[in-house]
Design brief:
Blueprint lengths: L1 H6 L9 H26 L16 H17 L11 E3 L4 E3 L20
């Protein structure tokens, strides 16, 4: 989404969270179907595909996601939290998932940040 903004001459840090949520919802009809079809074709996912698709951003799903996160992280201690390397986009000032990274080997240095 940050790349799409850049193509339009927009800079992410100048816009609110609400702006990005609205953009995500605008993006869903265009690309959400492609993602869903890819999941259906490439993974053995057991699901009743007759149901309308839902998103973790839907109100009822969002509450469920938070509930499960709290249960697995706080109550069961199953989510690891610690120091680790992350993929950082210095332009968008956000982390990236491994799927978003274009790997390229370079000579450089590592900057470590510690939160005490």
């Amino acid at each position: 989404m940050v790349a799409k903004l850049k193509e339009q001459g927009l800079i992410k840090r100048y816009y609110s969270e609400e702006f990005f949520e609205a953009m995500a919802w605008d993006w869903t009809p265009e690309y959400g179907g492609v993602i869903l079809e890819t999941i259906k074709e490439n993974w053995a996912v057991r699901r009743d595909w007759g149901d309308p698709p839902s998103s973790t951003m839907d109100d009822n799903m969002s509450a469920s996601v938070i509930k499960v996160f709290v249960d697995t992280y706080i109550n069961k201690g199953l989510i690891y939290r610690g120091y680790r390397m992350v993929n950082w986009d210095p332009e968008a000032k956000t982390t990236l998932s491994d799927e978003e990274v274009i790997y390229e080997e370079r000579q450089g240095f590592v900057v470590l940040f510690f939160d005490y």
